[in-house]
Amino acid sequence: MTDDEVSDVEAQGCRVLSRRHLESFLLADDALQAVDDTYEQPALGDQLIAARNQATTDAVANRSKSPDEMKAAAGGVYNTAKQLFN
């Protein structure tokens, strides 16, 4: 949305998120790094970030997705997380 469109929607009482998808919040660096604190394993957050970056690169290259479309990368991150957490 343009800035004007956001202003119009907000004037109607609706809230507009600062990122494109909810997945953008869930797959943000700080959210993935929080895994380190939860599982007390510093490498997990870095591995998940690397998986997100690779999944995003693959989605852009192979499926012509936008680099900020985290929905396209979510599956790759999920598969990596399944492997890491058994």
Offer a few descriptive terms.
single chain; 5 helices; flat; mainly alpha; 73% helix; 86 residues
Short description:
This protein has 86 residues and is mainly alpha-helical.
The helix content, as a percent range, equals over 70%
| Overall geometric form | flat
**Sequence of secondary-structure elements:** HHHHH
Helix and strand composition category: mainly alpha
Count of runs of 4 or more consecutive helical residues: 5
Radius of gyration: 16 Å
Largest sheet: none
- Count of individual domains: 1
Low-confidence stretches: none
The percent range for strand residues is under 5%
* Beta strand count: 0
* Average of pLDDT: 87
Oligomer status: single chain
First-residue to last-residue Cα separation: 40 Å
Task: Describe the secondary-structure layout.
Layout lengths: L2 H9 L10 H5 L2 H11 L2 H22 L6 H16 L1
Plain-language structure description:
This protein has 86 residues and is mainly alpha-helical. It has one domain. The protein is 73% helix and 0% strand. It is built from five helices and no strands. Helix 3 runs antiparallel to helix 4 and helix 4 crosses helix 5. The radius of gyration is 16 Å and the shape is flat. The model has no long low-confidence stretch (mean pLDDT 87).
